[in-house]
Structure formats: structure tokens, C-alpha cells
Write a structure and sequence with these properties.
alpha/beta; Rossmann fold; nine-stranded mixed β-sheet; two-stranded antiparallel sheet; 6 helices; binds 1-O-pyrophosphono-5-O-phosphono-alpha-D-ribofuranose; binds uracil
Length: 213
């Protein structure tokens, strides 16, 4: 597993605003949207391209465009991953979008999958998996297992914050069995006894969309 920490002043600034308990939901959503654009530069660094001929107002020339096949896929993990979807899909407009709905039981930290709308086959395709938080790593591992099962060639997990414990667990789970890169804006100190990232930003889903039971 490859790990890319996007250490850029703009990313650090926006992440700090995001962490602030006084940042309300509309501002939080806007910051997440801005952050995903910045992370997308790293996340899409190895995306496949091809050469085409175009005509500028001056003359014919060759240019580079994104290859449309095999079609990349973006998969947000509901709910909080939805916050990253708009930005990522604007960066990669040709991508198809699949959905995984997952909920972490806050007592056991076990993952329940309540929605699965993925393309039938991911053979040969690159999947951008979106979730703001990689805490224990349970949700990411469960999601990657679905993607692996469908034959995904490359998986890029795009996260805002990760805990060292979660990164280690994901890395140990998959080793070199799959081409996996984690792109993250920040790696925090640790998990607390409730499985929350410290210092973190709290519950990403609640901060994006409000508290639900
Ligand atoms: C949060 C978060 C991740 C998961 C991370 O989702 O968005 O999906 O927890 O924790 P883990 O690494 O320990 O699995 P949650 O289950 O709270 O659902 P939500 O997005 O609907 O709020
Ligand atoms: N899920 C969140 O939303 N935040 C955390 O810190 C851990 C899991």
C-alpha cells in the first residue's frame, strides 16, 4: 500500500478550519468540497491519458486527454463520503459513480453495509474510494473487499483524515495483494477509546449533514 500525505499550505489551512468546532455545516461542506479538489491532483496523478490531434486557432497539434476506457469509477462511502463526491466527479467528469452505504456501530465499531450499488464489473478499472475519515480502517477494508471482489485493478482511497492505527490495519490487511494508494490530507496522533480520531474533527457525517439516530 502506498500512502500520500498531501502536505500543502492550502490543504493545512482548510483542514484547520474544518477541525474547528465553531465551523458550521454549510461552511464545513464548502471546505470539504474545496479540499477534495486539492487532494484530487494527487489522487489522479497516474490516471491514464492518450494523445489526440486538435486544431488550435493557429495550427494542428497533438494534445493529451484523459482516456475514457476503461472508465474510472468513483465510489463514495455513504453518508460522509458523499461530501467528497461533487468535487471528485467534477475533476473526473467521465467517471461512473457507484455507491456503498456503510455504518459503523459506535459500540462495537463493527461495520454494517446497508447499500451496495456498484457497477457489475470493475475488471481493469481504477476506483476512487471516497470517505473523509479512515479511523479504525474497518469501513475502508470492508469497501475494498467489495471492490476487489469485482476485479478492480487499482484502488485510490481519498480521505481527509486518517489515524495511524487504521492505516496500519489497512496496509496489513491487503499487503501487496492489490494496487492500493491512500491519499490523505492529514494523519493524526491516534484513536481514542471510542474509535474517534484525535485530535480529528469529530463525526464527519454529523458535521456535514447533522445528527441522525
Ligand atoms: C464514519 C466515517 C467512515 C467511518 C470511519 O462513518 O465517515 O465511514 O466512520 O471509521 P472506521 O475507519 O473506524 O470504519 P459512519 O459509520 O459514522 O457513518 P456516516 O458516514 O453515515 O456518519
Ligand atoms: N468517524 C468519524 O466521523 N470520525 C472519527 O473520528 C472516526 C470515525
Amino acid at each position: 500500500m502506498k500512502e500520500i500525505i498531501v502536505s500543502h499550505p492550502l490543504v493545512k489551512h482548510k483542514l484547520t478550519m474544518l477541525r474547528d468546532v465553531n465551523t458550521d455545516s454549510p461552511k464545513f461542506r464548502a471546505l470539504v468540497d474545496e479540499l477534495v479538489y486539492l487532494l484530487a491532483f494527487e489522487a489522479t496523478r497516474d490516471v491514464e491519458t492518450e494523445q489526440i490531434e486538435i486544431t488550435t486557432p493557429i495550427q494542428k497539434t497533438m494534445g493529451t486527454v484523459l482516456k475514457s476506457t476503461p472508465t474510472p469509477v468513483i465510489v463514495p462511502i455513504l453518508r460522509a463520503g458523499l461530501g467528497l463526491l461533487q468535487g471528485m466527479s467534477q475533476v473526473l467528469p467521465t467517471a461512473e459513480i457507484g455507491f456503498l452505504g456503510m455504518r459503523r456501530d459506535e459500540d462495537t465499531l463493527e461495520i454494517e453495509t446497508y447499500a451496495n450499488r456498484l457497477p457489475k464489473s470493475l475488471v481493469g478499472r481504477t476506483v476512487f474510494l471516497l470517505d473523509p475519515m479512515l479511523a479504525t480502517g474497518g469501513s475502508t477494508i470492508a469497501a475494498i473487499n467489495f471492490l476487489k471482489e469485482l476485479g478492480a485493478k487499482t484502488i485510490v482511497s481519498v480521505n481527509l483524515l486518517a489515524a495511524p492505527e487504521g492505516l496500519k490495519r489497512v496496509s496489513e490487511e491487503f499487503g501487496d495483494s492489490i494496487d492500493l494508494t491512500v491519499v490523505v490530507a492529514g494523519v493524526d496522533e491516534k484513536l481514542n477509546e471510542n474509535g474517534y480520531i484525535v485530535p480529528g474533527l469529530g463525526d464527519a457525517g454529523d458535521r456535514l449533514y447533522g445528527v441522525v439516530d
